[in-house]
Amino acid sequence: MHLKLLADRKGLFHDEAGTVLMPPDLSMPQAAAPSPLPASVRDLIHARLTRLSHHALTLCVAAAVLGDGCTFDQLCRVADINDNQGLSALDELLTRGLLQETGGRCFFAHDSIRAGAYAEAGEIRRRVLHRRALETLQAASASPTELAQHALAAGLPDAATRLSIAAGDAAMRLFAARDAIAQYEQARQLVRRSHESPQPLGRGERGRFAG
Questions:
Q1: 62-101 b/e with 16+ CB inside 10 Å = b?
Q2: Domain-located, residue 208
Q3: How many structural domains is the chain composed of?
Q4: Under DSSP, is residue 101 helix (H, G, I), strand (E, B) or coil?
Q5: 133 domain-assigned
Q6: Close Cβ partners of 158 (under 8 Å, ≥ 6 residues apart)
């Protein structure tokens, strides 16, 4: 299904010689992860984060996954805490200068704080939070580009492929061909990787290696 959709869209990117303008080595867009930090900065932020209460740290990590401009309701859903716990946690983060509130939305005081909080979560927790973010932002009708980033970071390649194709289609409607190519290429690479992944052995095949 995904391969057919991508094949249909290749016709949109031909030069005068009929060559498809979709370079196979195009770098995949980064997922919703902040850039790595130098060790000294990471240690400093780690020290600040370890002083937070459990709910404040959870909310901070949820904000790192969602990114700047998230709402309080979105934070609580991704952090999986109730409003009262969220308000207390938010007050703590605002007081300690880690988050700022502007126009009813939350922003990190500095990009390095977001990167540090994101790193603190660990891979498994990040995947769970990205999955919650995907569900939360789908309900809020977020853009397919944003949703695709969260699906990719959540380890959901099928959803990431489908959303990347949708993001490419949306970019084409805005005549943003470069963005569309990047999204279609991301989908193409995801499909290719799924075909390259080793398939689990069937029951009969496992039996041949038993004993």
A1: bbbbbbeebebebbbbbbebeeebbeebbebbeeeebbee
A2: no
A3: 2
A4: strand
A5: no
A6: 2, 194
In three-state secondary structure terms, 117 is helix
Helix, strand, coil abundance in the chain, percent, nearest 5: 65, 5, 30
Does residue 102 share a domain with residue 45? yes
- The side-by-side arrangement of strands in the sheet containing 70-71 is 70-71, 105-108, 99-102
The pair of three-digit structure tokens given for residue 105, joined into one six-digit string: 């939305």
User: How would DSSP label each residue in 167-208?
Assistant: HHHHHHHTT-HHHHHHHHHHHHHHHHHHHHSPPPPPHHHHHH
Residues 164 and 188 in one domain: yes
Evaluate whether residue 86 is within a structural domain: yes
- The CATH number given to whatever domain includes residue 101 is 1.10.10.10
> In this structure, how many other beta carbons lie within 10 angstroms of the beta carbon of residue 22?
18
Residue 85 lies in a domain: yes
pLDDT at 78: 98
50/96 Cα distance (integer angstroms): 12
Per-residue model confidence (pLDDT) at position 209: 32
Rounded to whole angstroms, the Cα distance separating 146 from 130 reads: 11
Which regions in the chain score pLDDT beneath 70? 1-35, 197-211
Contact (Cβ atoms closer than 8 angstroms) between residue 171 and residue 183: yes
Range of the domain at 55: 39-122
Q: What's the pTM value of the predicted model, to 2 decimals?
A: 0.75
